[in-house]
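Q: I have two molecules that I believe assemble together. Could you output structure tokens for the complex as a whole instead of separate predictions?
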Amino acid sequence: MAFEFLTFGLGFVVLIIIGIIVYYINKIRVLSNRIDNAWAQIDVQLKKRADLVPNLVETVRGYAKHEKDAIRMVTQARENMLKAGNIKERMKAEGELTKALKTIFAIAENYQNLKANENFKLLQEQLESIENKVAYARQFYNDSVLNFNNTITTIPGMWFTGIAGKKEKREFFEATETEKKPVEVKF
Amino acid sequence: MKKISFYDQISKNKRDSVLLGVVVFFILISLVYIISSIFSPSLSLLFTIFAVIFMIVYTYGTYNYGDKVVLAATNAMPVGEDKRYTKLIDVVEELSIASGLPKPKIYVIKSDEINAFATGKDPNHASIAVTTGLLENLNRDEIQGVIGHEMSHIRNYDIRFATFIAVFVGLVAILSNILMRSFFWGGTREDRKDRNLGILIIVGLILAIIAPILVRLVQLAISRRREFAADAGSVELTRYPEGLASALEKILKINQGKMKVSEAVSHLFISDPNKSPLDNLFATHPPLKERIKILRSM
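A: Yes, here they are, computed for all two components at once.
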């Protein structure tokens, strides 16, 4: 009788321990997947942004042919962005593109017809939105990294990193040099 | 302000929703039992069984289709891919990226007032509705602040509890309406005098018991805690408190509280749709001025 009671109690404890281990392995994996997902989201938005640029360039060309420098700058920045091998490099190129686009939109202020063009207005809204989306995706990425790092470096999460196969802390996204400097727009 | 973890808020909302469902379930079934055993004792068991079946279906329906009821009750129209609402769609997409939640469905309500609400059972089945007045009067940063507030309600599962309350309060309102009507209807017949007196007492008692519970429930749904948590959540997403603060300021200036939506859903809105935000008497929503002050001090 006492023996049965003991095995029953022991079985119960083992079940609870297994439950806890499963919970933390899953939690660590889910947090890690969220980081990868956020990473991919940044890339999706960067590509969408690059796709919009040719359309913008065409529209601007139609109204402001003489602004060759600004147009070249944007096209160049877009090419650099597409050429970049990894997301970090792409983010750097993205900073250049943001600067070039700001110049284009500043120039557009001088062309009433361009400013009033429906297609241009739509592009302006889309580009602004994507810029926000990139920033938010990066913010979410950093939040996810913080969440993950906190979980794997504190008790009890740190006890399960070995079994979950996720021992390494993840890296934060740092602001690129171009982003740290305030962008100057001359009118 | 006390620091609120949104994980605590999520589990509290899930618990409250279950509790609310169970409480309303038993209140209504016991009501049906009491009333039917007074008027037709022989059929009271039948009525009660019917009520149980009805409540099971109704609770299930509330859980799965409560958001549709709320959206229909407020005349909210889905925006789809409408070019006029590009900015709104963009802002919602931006904040769903910022919060890491799936993109909610977007609706628009025709009204000159500035207002918005979110509904649904969880972040995977959520909707956000805004008024046309909001889109006309607020700039992009302000819209971001308001949508951020609604996204936080979605993340915190406030929408589940608030939608439950809307639909259950609606049911109780309808039932008490039926009771009142049957009382007046019965009142036209002379030979029912004794019964009428009985009905009068019962209706009076029921309303006396239910009315304060309802008011309390609605207050619970829009407790300061939930609203302040959603404001803080909005700032956590946009990192720009001034956007929401200035949106609330415009609400304070422009809104008259004349949207005329059912009282059962009014607690879902960011600002009471049926009362002027300046009217503090009997206010169910936390004062906007206080919220603006907190946002500006962040």
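A: One point stands out. Chain A touches chain B at residues 34, 38, 41, 45, 122, 125-126, 128-129, 132-133, 136-137, 139-140, 143-144 (CB under 8 Å).
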